[in-house]
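Please fill in the sequence for the structure shown.

STRUCTURE ENCODING:
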């Protein structure tokens, strides 16, 4: 018999809302039409709180909490939009843009990039931080796909999709900080991977142009995310 989930009542941006006790702030907010920006979150994948764009204010807490990893509780009072949060989110977007080499004009994800869309949404028209201009490589050894580390924002969507949905565990992460990057099979060239199934899930979940299909030119990179919740449900239904 399924465990009954109790309902919790809380306040989000001055609105009385309700949600299941196992829901996160992000899930409860979206269920009631309240928008909170995210990049690392994607329905169908586990939440890791990597991008920090979903930070919210919770009354009584001395620090900001990530909406995608914080479950709701009875009487919680949440603020999702304030001048303080807007400043934080703008700074995060600027840091993303400064850390790697995001040149929208020559990117396959141009006009279909979630980082670009959020920059426009949050009014980021310039970057106040010094650009690092790292010299990252491009792995084009795979027959179908390309991995461009210059455009990666380290959201780990691709890693989680490869592990949780496809079950291949091909992708992983190496190093730390600004030197962190996605690797295949303990840093082997992607084209030599014995575990990659060439399913393309990593391409579809990437929010930017870091992983793309070969042969696409500027603005031709399309993403399809709707399959994830269905595949997650079907995987959970297996005996």
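FILLED IN BY: designer on duty
SEQUENCE:
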């Amino acid at each position: 018999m399924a465990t009954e989930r109790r309902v919790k009542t809380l306040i989000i941006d001055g609105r009385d809302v309700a949600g299941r006790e196992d829901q996160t702030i992000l899930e409860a907010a979206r269920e009631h039409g309240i928008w909170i920006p995210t990049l690392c979150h994607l329905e169908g994948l586990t939440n890791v709180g990597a991008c920090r764009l979903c930070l919210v204010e919770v009354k009584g807490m001395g620090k900001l909490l990530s909406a995608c990893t914080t479950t709701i509780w009875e009487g919680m009072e949440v603020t999702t939009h304030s001048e303080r949060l807007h400043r934080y989110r703008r700074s995060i977007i600027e840091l993303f843009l400064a850390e790697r080499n995001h040149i929208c004009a020559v990117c396959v994800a141009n006009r279909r990039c979630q980082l670009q869309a959020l920059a426009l949404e949050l009014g980021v028209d310039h970057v106040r931080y010094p650009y690092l201009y790292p010299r990252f490589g491009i792995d084009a050894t795979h027959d179908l796909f390309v991995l461009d580390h210059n455009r990666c924002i380290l959201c780990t969507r691709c890693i989680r999709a490869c592990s949780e949905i496809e079950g291949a565990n091909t992708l992983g992460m190496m190093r730390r900080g600004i030197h962190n990057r996605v690797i295949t099979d303990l840093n082997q060239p992607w084209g030599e991977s014995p575990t990659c199934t060439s399913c393309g899930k990593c391409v579809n979940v990437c929010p930017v142009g870091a992983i793309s299909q070969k042969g696409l030119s500027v603005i031709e990179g399309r993403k399809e995310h709707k399959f994830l919740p269905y595949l997650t449900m079907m995987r959970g239904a297996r005996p």
